Amino acid sequence: MIASRLLAEGAEVHCWDPLARITDATPWSATTRHDTALQALAGADAAMVVTEWPELADLPWEDVVHMMRRPVLFDGRNLLDPTRMRDAGFNYLSVGRP
Description:
- The chain is of the alpha/beta class.
- It is built from five helices and five strands; from the N terminus they run αββαβααβαβ.
- It has helices at 2-8, 37-41, 54-57, 61-67, 82-88; strands spanning 14-15, 32-33, 47-49, 72-75, 91-94.
- β4 (72-75), α5 (82-88) and β5 (91-94) form a beta-alpha-beta unit.
- The longest helix is centred in the first third of the chain and has 7 residues, at 2-8.
- It is globular, with a radius of gyration of 13 Å.
């Protein structure tokens, strides 16, 4: 649902999910799917964490911030440490946390 809403608003959506099955019938069919999270984040204006994959927690976020065009990160699962993300240089937003 998130991807389809972003697409409807005119966003270019790049995604990574190791288990998602993309078909022409899924809302993700108009997205660009990547083999790694790092590939999906490269050049991004913003990123959303909407799953709790351990691979996301283990990303080198201090390097990722420099790969993105704009370091905006929304953590919809509270997976990441807010202090670490802000110290890395992200404009970090999460659910239910200051």
